[in-house]
């Protein structure tokens, strides 16, 4: 395939906007994958979506035997709302940059891996079974796909994740674990002018809890806590009865995940006559670099060198991916194998055109040589 071929094919994917909660858009992407895979003679399994989310698609190729194959993980859901491509982030090329919603995270990597997978299936060069899972809900924590990811991950020899490359093309061999929590605070409403003393402000209590939560951050330990959403109150002249907080936790180790999740779940009221209820927990386990992952990386680096590429790894990243699940199972996992670029989730999101052919060649080689 030429660079122009890749740009044209990837552009079709990007033009189908597919934010997680837009089932029509996400399933349109799954339709495209299933159609092209079936046309290439690849076995296609489609798993119906649930809980208001889109479908998942599993592709299989290579020699037929139980387990021991390479599992490729890609998600086709994005974060930009429908209409972004028309208003705020038009599909366009400017020099080496190809702009578009979701092109970096992660349609670019998913598209290249799909083309590599089809070629490996057609040529019959794979020494191991190949399984490719496309999911619909990674951007919201993989609530309906996690069981499927773990089921396929348990029988895989290696997992290859097509999240975007980091820091100029580096792959990822470690990620922080992610915790998500919702905190509901209930106070007592009263008239803010005539009966202020009778009220118990849920927002005041929330402010105290926010300070406590944010105070758990320990950069030296690699732990961060962030209250990302605050919602509360009914009217300016009412002492607020309710307030709700959404909390993000990032940790390096499983031990810290248990420790800090316990601290957040154990939050108690600071003021009198208020209730604090906390729900949630660890959403993604830490993806810790171990001996098996280091060995997989070294094999991948040697394979890259055979085609004149230098594959470097980045320092642990704070963002989670579906690779967290496979790594936590003990399956050697290599992440960040997608396109180089920048601006994930922003209005300057772009892929570097110069990375398309090299990343395609690398994925083809990994699928057939690992």
In short:
By secondary structure, this protein is of the alpha+beta class. It has helices at 3-15, 23-39, 84-87, 103-123, 146-154, 202-214, 254-265, 291-306, 323-328, 356-369, and strands at residues 43-47, 56-61, 69-75, 92-94, 97-99, 130-135, 156-161, 177-186, 190-191, 224-232, 238-239, 242-251, 275-284, 333-334, 341-342, 350-352. The protein has two domains: 3-174 and 287-369, Aminopeptidase; 177-284, Alpha-Beta Plaits (2-Layer Sandwich), CATH 3.30.70.
Tags for this model:
34% helix, 370 residues, 4-stranded antiparallel sheet, Aminopeptidase, single chain, Alpha-Beta Plaits, alpha+beta, 6-stranded mixed sheet, 10 helices, 2 domains
Account of the protein in words:
The chain is α+β, with helices and mostly antiparallel strands. The protein has two domains: 3-174 and 287-369, 3-Layer(aba) Sandwich (Aminopeptidase); 177-284, Alpha-Beta Plaits. It is built from ten helices and 16 strands. It has helices at 3-15, 23-39, 84-87, 103-123, 146-154, 202-214, 254-265, 291-306, 323-328, 356-369, and strands at 43-47, 56-61, 69-75, 92-94, 97-99, 130-135, 156-161, 177-186, 190-191, 224-232, 238-239, 242-251, 275-284, 333-334, 341-342, 350-352. The strands form four sheets. The protein has a six-stranded mixed beta sheet with strand order 1-2-6-3-7-14, with helices on both faces. A four-stranded antiparallel beta sheet has the order 4-5-16-15. Helix 1 (3-15) crosses helix 4 (103-123) and helix 4 packs across helix 10.
